[in-house]
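Bench notes, afternoon.
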Amino acid sequence: MAPDGSCAAWAAVVVNYNAGEALRACVASVLAEEPGPELVVVDNASTDGSVEALLRAFPAVRVVRSGGNLGYARAANLGSAATAAPVVAVLNPDTVLAPGVGLAVVARFAAEPDLGAAGPRLNNQDGTVYPSARQIPSILDAVGHGLLFFVWRDNPFTRRYRETGADPARPRDVDWVSGAAVWLRRAALDDVGGWDERYFMYVEDVDLCWRLRRAGWRVAYEPAGTVEHLLGVSTAGRPYRMIAEHHRSLLRFASVRFTGPRRALLGPAAAFLTARGVLAMAHHRFAAARR
């Protein structure tokens, strides 16, 4: 139900883990949306007082306490199950919705019955566009991006994978959109069995969009709505664990994606991702030392 008791057109699920004051800013932006959506915050056992501060500011906000740090996908499923609207948005706690984003994205679902997921335009704090709508890369592009990204960010493999040449002002169909702010048709989400809870952090959005498209649903980028993303508020304190989780999730998705004879690629993929994870940790340490 919407805050005024009517049936809401969409629901917002905010997944929180130690997001600090960013959580209040996110929730305030959701509450400012007109017409008002359902709202639930799923807290993965935060210890920073972020939920308590939120409830002091907004006592009526519904909070689902997961009982532990269960990961993003499990929390997203818990929040979705606690809401009833036909469209459900899952949001990072370090996102801030621009006015009208919910209305703009939900309008796409009303007009396009085969649309399963839609992502808004994501902006960085400085106003630049974050490449949130991407391809699922070919093996060549995945390897090229993985090898070159740290030393040559604008390499052709990364450009293709991130679709950085696309006009950010134009809507388009894509392979996947970032789970930092994604609107989902509930019927489509139910059709594929929800978020895959085997992913703890990262790549669960790639996997979900991949399964939606395999089930016949479309995935779209909708720039009429804008969301600011602070990036990494909940993960900044554990960078090395997050790098390891990212590469573990990439391998899990490879194990889902590679079927038949292509499963022979899983061994080389595991070796490549392990090496890249070590490289990513070294790069992070070097960058932190320079700062």
